User: What shape does this take?
Amino acid sequence: MSARTLWVELGERRYPVYLEAGGLEELGELYRQHGLQGRAAIVTDRTVEKLHARRALRALKEAGIDAQVIPVPPGESSKSWEWADRLYTRLLWGGFDRESVIVAVGGGVVGDLAGFVAATYLRGVRWVQVPTTLLAQVDASVGGKTGINHRLGKNLIGAFHQPRFVLIDPQVLETLPERERRSGIAEVLKVSLVRDAELFAFLEEHVDGLIRLEPPAVVEEALARAVRIKAEIVAEDEREVKGVRTLLNFGHTVGHALEAATGYRLLLHGEAVAWGMRVEAALSRARGALSPEEEERVRALVHRLGLPPLPPALDIETLMEYIRRDKKVRAAKLRIVLLRGIGHAEPVEIPEVELLGALREGLQSR
Ligand SMILES: NC(=O)c1ccc[n+]([C@@H]2O[C@H](COP(=O)([O-])OP(=O)(O)OC[C@H]3O[C@@H](n4cnc5c(N)ncnc54)[C@H](O)[C@@H]3O)[C@@H](O)[C@H]2O)c1
Ligand SMILES: [Zn+2]
Assistant: This one.
């Protein structure tokens, strides 16, 4: 069993991300080591409940912690005001006080919802994250963004609330469907493109193994590198005011539009982002910031992730409408993050027509 600890350096709120195969069994010990003694409310979804949350419950109980599992239905629709309200009610009825701790065991949906409840319940209680999807392990669990959706849009209601620690156990990914794993790897590819050319080369070599989760050393290396980059960026720009954290939006301008235009049903988040990265890499190349060879490497890696096709009825103008609605367009100019070579990104302002061209090109052969 190997263990690594990565730190999210946020002054008094700095916290560790533990990365350890089989680490779930040590949740109770870590909980105590962090000075947490109060009751634990394990928030999870019904799928993860059976697979992993019960083990989390056992680990906490074995450490003498009074703990209880509170499940929500799996899926994005649980990231809602209704479910936040039900959780408040459960916690209040259950007598959870300010010393209590919320332990989120699940994917990004559970993490965002449980974190939001932790940020607001009794004006804020402590919380711990145990991410169980690849996407949540490399992205959603690091950085303290929590929130729920509003009927007018995703992630519009929320708070920054950093956890006490994050525990990543790569073994829990063995039960995750392959499609979800591939989708999560798209976010690893994204951080490599904006910040770490070496990680990009590592993915070129090992992406097929990573999808199959073997060997474990490859999985741990990829997770650790991706988490380190996310942690560094968060430490530099916790609240996304300096522009550094916006670099993580590479692939997301187009990705979000694709998700919205397909009704959030056809594509997983990482799949939409992978399509988005293809388009935004084409745009970077068209502006001369990425060489044709580099763009080809990006396309090749995205291809190996295996994208589901886009519906033939999806037209470029519709996508542009969604992008405009995203409020990033002013006076036919669009703010977007583009690559400057592999491993570097920068926010730029471009005329809308340039994106139109890249959309035509990047969404070809769909
Ligand atoms: N807070 C942030 O910084 C941040 C960053 C990125 C994404 N997000 C949010 O994360 C959400 C998406 O997260 P996600 O992709 O993890 O989705 P998710 O939480 O819906 O999980 C995907 C599916 O996998 C199942 N699952 C989870 N772990 C499993 C396991 N180990 N084995 C088997 N099945 C498992 C879940 O039940 C669910 O059906 C979105 O709401 C997005 O907005 C937040
Ligand atoms: Zn994303």
User: Anything to note?
Assistant: The domain at 3-176 is CATH 3.40.50.1970 (Rossmann fold). Residues 88 and 304 are 43 Å apart (CA to CA).
